[in-house]
Amino acid sequence: MFQKHWAYxxxxxxxxxPDLETILTKAGIKFEKxxxxxxxxxxxxxxxxxxxxxxxxxxxxxxxENLSKIQETNLHNSIYDCLTADxx
Length: 88
Hints:
By secondary structure, this protein is mainly α. The protein contains four helices and no strands. It is about 45% helix and about 0% strand. Helix 3 runs antiparallel to helix 4. The chain is globular, with a radius of gyration of 14 Å. The termini are far apart. The mean pLDDT is about 85.
């Protein structure tokens, strides 16, 4: 997959088995909504606005540590990479 893409050497698939919601629940994320409506809560878990970046760093480190204990995902690697890239 993506073997002919110019950024192939940088692409690392993220796996979450059986799905992201299960992994987030195992990592201690509490959801308020059920079913498809639950996806609307992702913005709270993964904020995209820069105003959150300063205070979210500590929470993201803790979140990544929780994820690293879950065998069914490698999402923690991507979070650690983002945190490291942000500090450079």
